[in-house]
Every structure is written in C-alpha cells, then in structure tokens.
Design brief:
heterodimer; A: mainly alpha; elongated; B: alpha+beta; Jelly Rolls; six-stranded antiparallel sheet; four-stranded antiparallel sheet; about 35% strand; globular; Galactose-bd-like_sf (chain B); APC_su10/DOC_dom (chain B); cell cycle (chain B); signal (chain B)
Chain lengths: ~775, ~240
Amino acid sequence: MASTKPLCLPRRSFPRRTTVCRRLAEGEQILSGGVFNKQKSHDDIVTEFGDSACFTLSLLGHVYCKTDRLAKGSECYQKSLSLNPFLWSPFESLCEIGEKPDPDHTFKLTSIQNFSSCLPNTCTTLVSNHNLSHRQPETVLTETPQDTIELNRLNLESSNSKYSLNTDSSVSYIDSAVISPDNVPLGTGTSILSKQVQNKPKTGRSLLGGPTALSPLTPSFGILPLETPSPGDGSYLQNYTNTPSVIDVPSTGAPTKKSVARMGQTGTKSVFSQSGNSREVTPILVAQTQSSGPQTSTTPQVLSPTITSPPNALPRRSSRLFTSDSSTAKENSKKLKMKFPPKIPNRKTKSKTNKGGITQPNINDSLEITKLDSSIISEGKLSTITPQIQAFNLQKAAAEGLMSLLREMGKGYLALCSYNCKEAINILSHLPSHHYSTGWVLCQIGRAYFELSEYMQAERIFSEVRRIENYRVEGMEIYSTTLWHLQKDVALSVLSKDLTDMDKNSPEAWCAAGNCFSLQREHDIAIKFFQRAIQVDPNYAYAYTLLGHEFVLTEELDKALACFRNAIRVNPRHYNAWYGLGMIYYKQEKFSLAEMHFQKALDINPQSSVLLCHIGVVQHALKKSEKALDTLNKAIVIDPKNPLCKFHRASVLFANEKYKSALQELEELKQIVPKESLVYFLIGKVYKKLGQTHLALMNFSWAMDLDPKGANNQIKEAIDKRYLPDDEEPITQEEQIMGTDESQESSMTDADDTQLHAAESDEF
Amino acid sequence: MPRLCSSPSLLFIPLVVRFSPFQVSRWAFSPPPPTSGCSGFNGIDNVSNKLRMTTPNKTPPGADPKQLERTATVREIGSQAVWSLSSCKPGFGVDQLRDDNLETYWQSDGSQPHLVNIQFRRKTTVKTLCIYADYKSDESYTPSKISVRVGNNFHNLQEIRQLELVEPSGWIHVPLTDNHKKPTRTFMIQIAVLANHQNGRDTHMRQIKIYTPVEESSIGKFPRCTTIDFMMYRSIR
C-alpha cells in the first residue's frame, strides 16, 4: 500500500503488512486497541486517523471479517464508505460477505464537507501555491513565443512529475531546460516524456467518453461542457506536443501542477485540479499562440506528438478522485486504468470548433487560475476566489460523473454477488463502451454467464478479455473452468501456459494449470497444481474447491471433504464448496445430508439450475418424488436450456411408472440433444417396460452406436436382458445364463448397485 | 529404506513395503495425442486368445495404458495401494517397479515363485492389470508363467488368472474378472511369477499398473453421458 500522509505511514503500513501476514490480532490491536483491551469506537478511530480513517476502517473491517466477526466487519466497511464514497474495496468486500449495500445510497456526494475531505487538495491551496511558485518560470517567460515554449516544457515536466517512478531524473533535467529556452532540451524532454509514456503500460487511457456523453452526470465524466480547442487548428498543433488538440488540454494545465509538485506534494495530488483548470486555459492559450504562430514554427519539428501523455493526465486525475491520496490509490488506479481504455480516436473525432475564448469573459476569469502566460500573470489582478469556486465546481462535476459510474458498477457487482446474474449482465452491458471493454467489467460479465451455466457465452467474453488485456490474471480461473466444462483442451493448455509463464505467484495461474491436467484425466498432477495454488495463497477459496473435486475424482473422499470444508472456512459464501460436500454425501448415499448441503448452496445461489437438478435427484432418491418433480420443474423454468433437468425429470417419471409423460419428455429431449446416447438408453428402457421390445432394441442399439468408447456396458446388458421378463432388478444368475463375453464392465444396474453399496457400507 | 533379505520359507511376509507415490515426469502443457481408438481393447482379446494357446507365436504387445486412461473409463489406482515384493536386489525394488519408467525394473533375489503383493485399504474394484515385459532386454529374466491371485489377505488368496507369455515385447493387459464376468472386488492382489524364460531363476519386471473402472456419471445411476451438452450441466465446478 502506498503511504498517504507521511505521518500515517508507519502506522498504516504496519497494520496492512500484518494483515497480509495474517497476524490479524496484531493488526487489530494497532488499529483499534486490540481484541481484549477496551476497543475504540469508530468515532475515536475517525478522530484519531483523521483523513485516512476511511482506510483504517476498511482495514479493520477486513480483519473482523477474517476473524468471523462479520457484523462488526460490515459495520466498519459501511462507516468507511460513508466517510469516503470513492472507495471501492469496502463496497466490494461488503458484497462478497453477502451484505447488500445500496449503490445509490453509497456512491453519492452527500455533502461538500465529505467532498472536500475526500479531496484534500482543493483548488485554493493549488492556486495560491501556483501564484507563488510561478515567479521562477515567469522570469523566464518574457515573450509569448518563449512562453509557449515554456508552456510546453512545463507540460513535459509536470507530466513527467506525474510519473513518480521516473520523476526525479526527469524533473531535474527539465529544470535546467526551463531555465534555458532551447529547442534541444525541449526535444529531449519530449523524448524523455515519450519514453516514460512507453514505460507505462496502457497509460493512454482517457476518461473522455464519446462526444455524445457530455454531461458530467453520466459515467463519461471528465468531459466538461466548456470550450475545447479544435483538433484542426494548425497553429495550435504547432505549439503543443500533441496533435489532437483536446489532449493538450490537461497538459497545458500541467505546468501549474509542476510548480505544485515542486513544492513537495506528490504529483498525483495536483493532477485533478489542474486538469479541471486546464480546460479553460486552453482556449486562451490558443488565442495567444495564434498570434504568435509564425514565431513558434520552429518548435513543431522538435515536438514529437506524444499522444499518450495527456490522456495519462486524465486517468491520473480520476485516480486522484478515487483515492484522494489514499493508499488504495494504486489498487484503484489499477482498476481505473483497466476501466478506461484509450480514447484517442474519439478525441480526434471530437471536432469542436475552437472557441478561442476570445469573446467569453468567464474564460478570462478562469484564465487567472492557471496563470501560465506571464503576460496574463502580469495582467491578472483578479482575485482567486472566483477561479477557486470554478475549479471546485469542476471538481464536483467530475466527481459526480465518477459517482454515477461507481453507482452503475456497484449495482452490477452487487447483482453478481447476489447471483442475480441476468440482472448483473444487463446492468453492466449498459455501461458506456469504453468502460464496458475493460478487463474488470468483462470479467464480471463472463463470471455472470459462468454462474448461469452459459459456458459458450462466458468463453466468448473471456476470450475478449484475453484479447484486450492479456496480462490480466484475476478472473482467469473462471475462464479455465469454463474451458474445462466445454472440454476445450487446447485452449485450456494455452491459457494455463500463458498464465503460469506470466505470474507464478498467482493462485489463478495454478488453478488453470490444474484444470488443464484434470481435463487430461491426469488427476495426480492436477492435485499437485491445486496444492501449489493453495501454497501460493492460502486464502483463495476456489483452489480448495478445485482440489476437493480432484480428490472426488480419485475417490479420496475424506481428503475431498477436508478440502471443501477448508474452502467454506475461507469463504462461507462459496457455494461451489457446499455443492461439493453435497456431492460427496450423495456418493456415500447419505441423501438427507446431501440434500441439506445442496440446499445451502442453493440459498447462496438461487438461480442455478444445476443445483436444483441435483436437489431434485436427491429428493427422488429420498423417495420424495413429488417434491423432486416440483424442483425439477422449477429448474426447467429457470433454465430451459438445461437438458439434464429434462432428462432427470423423465427418469423420475419413469421410476414412478408414468411412461407416457416420460416418453414425451424424452422425445423433446431428443430434439434438443440428438446425439446423446443416454437419451436413447432411457427411451429404450421405457419401451422395454411398455413391452415394445422392437423399439426398445432399436433405441438400445442407437445408444450403443452413439457411445464410441464402448464403455457403457449397461446398454449392452440392457440389450441382453431384453428377453427377460420385465424386471428392472436383474439377478446375477440370469446374467450367467446370458454368458456374453463382453459384459465385463461393472454393472451399474440397481440390484448390483445396492449390493455393492451395502457391502461398502459394511466396510466403513 | 531398510531392506531385509528374505528367507525362502517366509514367502508370505512382505519385506519391502512402501506406498509408492505416483511420480510424474511430464511437464509439458501440450495437448494429448489423439486416442488411437480401441486398439488396446482389441489387444486384450488377441492376447488372451494367444495366451491360452501357448503356440510358438510370440505374445503381441498391447496398447500403452496411458491411452486407456484417456478414455476416462479406467483410473490407475496403484498409488492407493501398498506394494510389496517377496525379494529384491538392492536398487531394483518397488520404486523401480512403480516409477513410470520402462528402463528401470524390479529384479527378484530369491527362489520361485516371486511375488508382487498389492494391498488396498478397502475393497476395490479392479478391472485390468497391465504388465510390461520385454524379452529382448530381459531374456532369461522375462517371466513366462504368471499367476494372478486375489483375496482378502495372504492366507485367503485364490487364483483367478494364469497367463503364459511367449517372448513378450510390450505391455500385457490382463483383465481381472470374476466368475460373473465383472471386475473383481478385492482387498489384495498377488502376482506370482512361476516360471521365467529359459528357466531363469530370477525375474525382471519393468512396470505394473492396476486399473479400476471409473464410476459412472455423478448423479443418478446412469451410464456416462456422451455429449458435451450433457456433460456441461452435469456438475458445478
């Protein structure tokens, strides 16, 4: 976690580290006075930690949740969110523990007070600093042409300063450049900038939405309905490092921030206000540069268009909005970067006429804010109040836009965590395209399809994610399971290889690798990889679940039970683990336990037709056939595409001797899945019961044909028994009478099963 | 691992006892080669016929058991069993028998019959036994008469299969079925080498694998589904 205020650094990073090292009690002690001592109330914490109380509370909530105190944890999260609605991770955690926070209520700017506390660097400080610090460049700027050069230099410098990684060297370099207005250092400064730009992966993201979404209240905030220079303005182009004029907007504002950065504040802090201001600055500058056009003609060749740099300003700005010098800056900005794909083409298409700002008086006012041009500075006698308020309003407008985006995303995420998958897909699909085509959003949608068992769709979405962000590792474990279901072994091999090559320390990569080998039926290797995933991250519930499934496949049911229980310990809402437990009890014929566990899974995920189907079968095994039929009907209503529900309904009807309806069901099923041998097998059995042996034989032979591996000797035995009296309980002597060579496989017919199970239960 | 020499009279006391871990030598993420259909299965019939006939025809090799595994109808369960040998030369013991490496082998060091005992924790269904034997490399050490016995413990073994090998050169698939033509359910399997080629005293055995049938589909007592459409909805993972 990045440090926030230097004061807080030792205090905050230590608790975070201890949480990571799972020394939760220690962390709690530090934050709130310990488990056993008198605990501070939330208000105490707020006063103690001041601005970073929201993060403290978020951490504390995490500690509580991990130590099974969910109520206290959710309380902490709620308080944290109320203090700072820009935080996403407490909201996420709340959704994951099963609470249903209201996104509309959470993500809104309730009061100016809140707002300013979230964004401690208000314009006031900025502007005053700016006034002070601009003395130095001011002296350099004697003429307008040089001013513009200076501007550009300052652009570069301040943009550079935003890249905190590379800041020191570049800033110091540019310092000298500032002093001597040459083209050479400018050029190199540009090259430094472009180099830095290249270092940043995918930094060329902008927050600007399409030209249509101009209101700050839509998620495409960041577009201020103020004048923006036209891209086609030639002289404009000459004077700025970036050919798309709009992009210059923040960069021209950058110089203000440069000075701020010099004052020792982190560059990120200043981004926001500056970019807010810059919008108004640009037109003025254009006006000026237009006048000085011919003189600056020498600059263009030096200035390479670094298109990506100013857009970087905007993402940073929004990251500022999110984080407000918080330690979650990195995590959120990462998310943001993922959410806002490059919008360079859109910006280019935005051909607003250059409003020049020549005639608009308010521009002149706002011009005072940035005071880039020395002439303006010298003229500027305006007070700083109006510009401050203007800047503040801009901040607020952008923040509102941000909030609306957060609301939408919050609704979508909440729906997904409550397993309202269809609704989640709906909400998230309505995000604007530049937010939609980001790794995080698409992963959530993919996961929603996965939970709906629509694996084809999920696979499509996930492959899109891989195309857009092939470095993304989160969410890929779901993709690997999707491919496992679809049995696409080549794609799965590729995915697991890529992921393990990219990041050996992520549990998702090892889960994908394990899935790959599980698909190849090399269960021992799969087990090894899942154990590795657990080693890498012991708090990753899905690894335990997958390991449990592998143990089930290798018939080590005790170990499987332990794994599923571990998964539930880590995440009580992991319905896959509850399902796994139910499956084990079903295998052990403990049907009521199985039903209980399936029901628990269903409580968490009520829309899963597979779960309902299993419950139906278990209820049938418990002789509650009516209930079973009801459950299966419900399953079919929820997901008409699930063929297994219909199949099991048919088998229940068959067991209850409702042959006609069973046949009807199976005929429908034949239409849906014409190549499934099981369907013909069951039809054959029904016909046999009805005495129509020809049809029975025909269907059995079809079933055998459709089963190329010849493993289903049940079918062969069913054929062999066709001459027997209608008796679904074949006795071994009769099989002896048959004397077929080929039925060597284990018989799965009912009688033998019961015998087998009886023998097994004796053994246990 | 301490090894004791056996005394000829104590044939039934296992001396080398070990849980053999299933060692993995493959690391590549490459997709599997396409299964070669049912050749392995055809091999069983041919082999069993030829074994009965004891003609000068050599025992043909069966398919690689890995392909059996890929059909998802059987599963190798040697790792769930305790393996023991009647005798062995140091460095040529159970580990070499179970290491998935055809170059290493078990070499016995006592008198005949040489025994391989496989004991399960619980009564297990076993379908096929696969033995790798190669006359060209082992010559007089190659087993020629093998007896497979099953039972609950050492005193309770019954022979269910006897096979004669004539210059084998690969995998031998031995289906283990009981009187009712179903896979045997047993606690213990004993493979006894009764005679070797050229009347050799000791025997080499390079690899042994034991397979159990995979249980059918997860829910309901039905045979396995064949289409992905069904299999997708079969379980939640």
